[in-house]
Amino acid sequence: MYLAFSHLFILILLVACAQDTAVDNQTTEQETSKRDPFEPQFGDGFPYDGEKLIYTASWPSNWVVGHDGKPYISDRVKIYSNYASTNVRKQIAEAAESTIDSIFKFIEMDKSNFYSFQFHPDYTAGRIHIHADHNENPNSWGLAYRDGILIKSLEAPVYVNNPIFPRERWDLILNHELYHVFEFLLIANPLYQQGNSVWMREGGANYGAKHNKTQTLKALQDWQTLMADIPGQGNPIAIQVWNDFPAVIIGDKRTGEYYEFFELGVRYLLDPVGLGKTMTDLKQHYTNLGNGMSFANSFQSVFGISISYYQANYFDLMTAYLQNPDRQMGSSRYGKTD
């Protein structure tokens, strides 16, 4: 089910630059002069053949990528783009650096551990690559893979003078996608980076992005009513792999509606008044996956319940959890919620 390392290498190289020319290089570190062996050209397409991207990236998307060969480089990120100005590339780098610091705090690791992660050899040089797309892919918002992300540029038309998609939405997507990268790096073994289930991977990214939208029992009940006639009745724990989404949901491009309930499921696991597990437990789960343990076995070992039990009892457990006044609330743990 999982792609070989060589396939992942090809995927990552498509977002890389054939040259290593920096714009306003902020570091004194000498960039490698070794050229990428595949030397992709501006406008090369993202590889896509059926399910390939399901097992190489955070979600399946036929995202066309291209850049001008002039990355902006900061301490831990490298920003590629096709049209973004130098100033916008700098803004994206600064936002990413701040987010990386926040994620380290969130996962309870010292940020000095960044360089101990297993980045792609002879390629990333200890940096996360970010491709800032202008408007080549109007229906795609963000995508993460082992060593980097694709995201809309801050200058993309959809973000300019558009109150529906303010800067806060871009920040949320950046946080979500970078958390995916950290999950992949914590799993470490590229053969098993997709070992986590879809619901836990996407829920974990929303949790890590501090986007805990569902806060009331009514929101949960409204979801159950909305999904009553849909296969699976909207149970998020049923979504183990991408094709577990009901066909009508995929066809109508409504998969994103599940994400807040994915996040609720992860939040419950790590809340002292929920299942009571910790970030240490979650990181052990990632380690287990990287060692080749199945998702079901790791989940049972780390969280002490079977995935079948969690799926069967999800709505009952969340109903009780959302009525607990001591649960993790957006106002205290995460700041503003919507």
- Determine Rg (CA atoms, Å): 20 Å
Assign a percent range to the helix content. 25-40%
What's the count of strands?
5
Element string (H = helix, E = strand): HEEHEEEHHHHHHHHH
Q: Reading side by side through the largest sheet, how are the strands ordered?
A: 1-2-3-5-4
Count of separate structural domains: 2
What would you note in describing this structure?
The protein is α/β, with parallel strands linked by helices. The protein folds into 2 domains: 5-191, no CATH class; 198-334, no CATH class. The protein contains 11 helices and 5 strands. It has helices at residues 5-13, 86-106, 167-187, 198-208, 217-226, 247-251, 259-270, 279-290, 295-303, 307-322, 330-334; strands spanning 72-73, 77-81, 128-133, 142-145, 148-152. Strands 1-2-3-5-4 form a 5-stranded mixed sheet, covered by helices on one side. Strand 1 (72-73) and strand 2 form a beta hairpin. Helix 3 (167-187) crosses helix 4 and helix 3 crosses helix 8. The chain is globular. The model is unreliable at 1-55 and 330-338 (pLDDT under 50).
